[in-house]
Amino acid sequence: MVKAAFFDIDGTLLSYYTHRLTSATIDTLQAMRRKGIKLFIASGRPTILFPQMPVAFDGFITMNGGNVYVPGQVLHSQPINRDDASAWFNYAEREGICTMCFSDNDMYINFVDEEALGLKNGLDIPMPPVMDVRRMAERNNYQIIGIMPPSRDAEVQSFMPHCRLPRWHDSFTDIVCADNSKASGMDVLCRHFGIDMADTIAFGDGGNDIEMLDHSGIAVVMGNAKPRVKEHADFITLTVEEDGITHAAKELGIVD
């Protein structure tokens, strides 16, 4: 019996084209709430980049597990190791890598290039204010976005031993504390609400959703996901534009 549902945002709840929830998705989420199912966001985004949702959620996994909270209470908060962060900022400055960072309540970028503009427009987010990397290194950084090709990932991992790189896009990667993930955030929320992991369902489409999908009782992968993500599905649904969440919920008997 499903007691908790976890949802990625981009490409799962929101279309990359409209950046909105479909009316069918809203109806399905509301139907889940009426059945007593807890609804949770599980995203790489920080809270300040959450779109306004027309449905209430019971808890939030932000920045790939760096910060987990329920309304009015932080349950988990763990920024990136300071030495690892400093090593990254030195590397980014030396190599000229555009870097976006998320701290507790704000975000910033070291410079703006065409790829940064593409990321901003693709996710429909505001451009962060520009900040020198030396000032970035002084802050608690929960997530770093390195705008770089996959060929750099192994090198970066070698000098950031306390971090991992859950890449979900060819043009950039997330960098987070090794202990943080959407799966670890699921554990935090399920403990808080007394829910067994076997009674969960997760919906995702990206590479940073794989751990969450593998950890959940039922893994639903959106039809717009890449093949490597679909390999982790218990159920492959329609695309986000085709109301994939609604289709899966009905086919799996979660809602009528």
Q: What this model shows, in words?
A:
The protein has 256 residues and is an alpha/beta fold. It has nine helices and 13 strands. The chain has helices spanning 23-34, 82-95, 114-123, 133-136, 153-159, 182-193, 210-215, 227-230, 244-251; strands at residues 4-7, 38-42, 59-62, 67-70, 73-77, 99-102, 107-109, 143-146, 163-164, 173-177, 200-204, 218-221, 235-236. An eight-stranded mixed beta sheet has the order 5-4-3-2-1-11-12-13. Strands 7-6-8-10-9 form a five-stranded antiparallel beta sheet, covered by helices on one side. A hairpin with a 4-residue loop joins strand 6 and strand 7 (107-109). Helix 1 (23-34) runs parallel beside helix 9. The longest helix has 14 residues, at 82-95. The relative contact order is 0.18.
Q: Which structural category do the helix and sheet elements fall into?
A: alpha/beta
Task: Please report the number of helical segments.
Answer: 9
**Number of β-strand runs:** 13
Mean pLDDT: 94
User: Which strand-content bin applies to the residues?
Assistant: 15-25%
- Characterize the quaternary organization of these chains: single chain
Order of helices and strands: EHEEEEHEEHHEHEEHEHEHEH
Largest sheet: 8 strands, mixed
Straight-line distance between termini: 14 Å
- Estimate the global geometry from the Cα principal axes: globular
| Poorly predicted spans | none
Helix content: 25-40%
